[in-house]
């Protein structure tokens, strides 16, 4: 997972961690096992992000998804041979930021000892709307609520 973030950083592609790893970045500790990495990427950088991740073994999988009521309605699924996946959530950052409130949706959290760009706590909460929650989603929301951030 850190390899994916480093690869995108080296390619000059800005991403923000969302989902379970995003929550863990906000909390500064891993709270559960993860099988994927959710990344918010400016729509104009999505193809470049997928090309960069392909260089480290992530292949495009025909698993695109559109959830019209979700905060990040689109998803491009990349899979690695070991079953780890990266979900690219392309958004038009300029307009998307204004749709999530008055403050910046982006903050810096920590994964291990690495400062990690991620979504702010309230945006993480908003990101869990518009689809049927899984047990892992409920865990993430509970962890955010208990942390009071």
Could you tell me the radius of gyration in angstroms? Answer: 14 Å
> What's the number of helices?
6
What's the SSE pattern? HEHEHEEEHEEHH
Unreliable stretches, pLDDT < 50, 5 or more residues? none
Coarse shape: globular
The percent range for strand residues is: 25-35%
Number of E-type strands = 7
Taking the sheet with the most strands, its summary is: 5 strands, mixed
Largest sheet: spatial strand order: 1-2-5-4-3
Q: In whole angstroms, how far apart are the ends? A: 24 Å
Helix vs. strand class: alpha+beta
Percentage of helical residues? 25-40%
| Average of the residue pLDDT scores | 92
Description:
A hairpin with a 2-residue loop joins strand 6 and strand 7 (114-119). The chain has helices at 2-10, 19-27, 46-54, 93-99, 121-127, 135-147; strands spanning 15-18, 36-42, 59-66, 74-79, 85-91, 106-111, 114-119. The mean pLDDT is 92. With 149 residues, it is of the alpha+beta class. Helices cover 36% and strands 30% of the residues. Helix 2 packs parallel to helix 6.
């Amino acid at each position: 997972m850190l390899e994916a973030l480093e690869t995108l950083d080296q390619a000059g592609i800005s991403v923000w961690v969302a989902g379970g790893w995003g929550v863990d970045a906000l909390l500064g500790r891993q709270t559960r096992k993860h099988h994927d990495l959710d990344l918010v990427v400016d729509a104009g950088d999505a193809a470049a992000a997928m090309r960069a991740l392909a260089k480290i073994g992530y292949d495009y999988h025909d698993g695109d998804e559109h959830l019209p009521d979700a905060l990040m309605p689109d998803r491009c699924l990349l899979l690695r041979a070991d079953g780890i996946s990266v979900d690219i959530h392309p958004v038009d950052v300029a307009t998307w930021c204004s749709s999530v409130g008055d403050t910046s949706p982006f903050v810096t959290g920590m994964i291990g000892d690495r400062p990690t760009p991620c979504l702010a706590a309230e945006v993480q909460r908003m990101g869990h709307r518009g689809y049927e929650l899984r047990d892992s989603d409920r865990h993430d929301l509970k962890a955010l609520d208990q942390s009071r951030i």
